Amino acid sequence: MKKERHTHIFALLERIGRLLTMEAHAEGLLPVHWEALRYLQRANRFSMTAAALTAYLGSTKGTVSQTLKALESKGLVKKRVKTNDRRSNHLSLTAKGRNLLRRDPLSDTVKAIEQLGTSTQTELNNGLEDLLSARLAMQNRQPFGQCRDCRYFAKRHPDGEPHYCLLLKETIAESETDSICFEQQPG
Predict the structure, then answer these.
(1) Partner of 183 at 20 to 30 A CA spacing, among 7, 40, 63, 173?
(2) What is the per-residue pLDDT for 123?
(3) Strands of 82-148, DSSP E
(4) What would you report as the CA-atom Rg of the chain, rounded to the nearest whole angstrom?
(5) Between the CA of residue 90 and those of 40, 84, 87, what are the distances in Å?
(6) How many CB atoms lie within 10 A of CB 53?
(7) Quick one: pLDDT at residue 136?
(8) In degrees to the nearest 10, what's the CA dihedral of 161, 163, 166, 170?
(9) Triad 34, 100, 179: Cα angle to 5°
(10) Residues 49 and 89: beta-carbon distance below 8 Å
């Protein structure tokens, strides 16, 4: 019975994944393009690089490079060379990219989640977070959690405005605390 439940959960995840992938072929983009756009929308300023995007997607450098080229050619993403490290580019969404994300094809899935009861949402969130954490740990991959939940996050630190990253020795604005970070380590 227990194995059947595990198999059923996997089958549900697989079916939902297929539905999401089908929907993500919208606006002339591939699913990986949408994933990259969503990542850039959620990432903090320290994580807006091709290397961080590569780690987040669990993809190859070549695939991410091609993804970024496609997004740049469509005017959705902009790359600029970092002044402190000329080997690395800083990525950002353009106004066109932000506008496109307002029509994200997965918004219907978000609406479906919103229709679930609060306790179901909480259980689903906790269960999926646990599942993701377990899979990331199996592959020794970064968690990419939110700044506010990081062991290096210093709330109302004297050197911050109003917060501070103890790892990167950088100030963190209140608006950045919900952003995801490549360097995040659960607190």
Answers:
(1) 63
(2) 95
(3) 89-93
(4) 18
(5) 11, 11, 10
(6) 24
(7) 87
(8) -30
(9) 65
(10) yes
DSSP conformation class of 80: E
**Alpha-carbon span 164 to 177, nearest angstrom:** 10
131-156 average pLDDT score: 88
3-state helix, strand, coil in the chain (%, to 5): 55, 10, 35
User: Tokens 């990167």, residue?
Assistant: 168
Structural tokens at position 39: 């990542």
Contact 68, 79 (CB under 8 A): yes
- Which pair of structure tokens corresponds to residue 88? 């690395």
Q: Minimal CA–CA distance to 32: which of 73, 67, 82?
A: 67
Contact 162, 174 (CB under 8 A): yes
Q: Six-digit token pair at 92?
A: 């950002």
Residue identified by tokens 């918004």 is 107
Write the Ramachandran bin of 75: left for phi over 0, alpha for psi from -120 to 50, otherwise beta.
Answer: left
pTM score over 0.70: yes
Report the distance separating Cα 160 and Cα 166, nearest Å. 10
The overall longest dimension of the chain from CA atoms, in Å, is 58
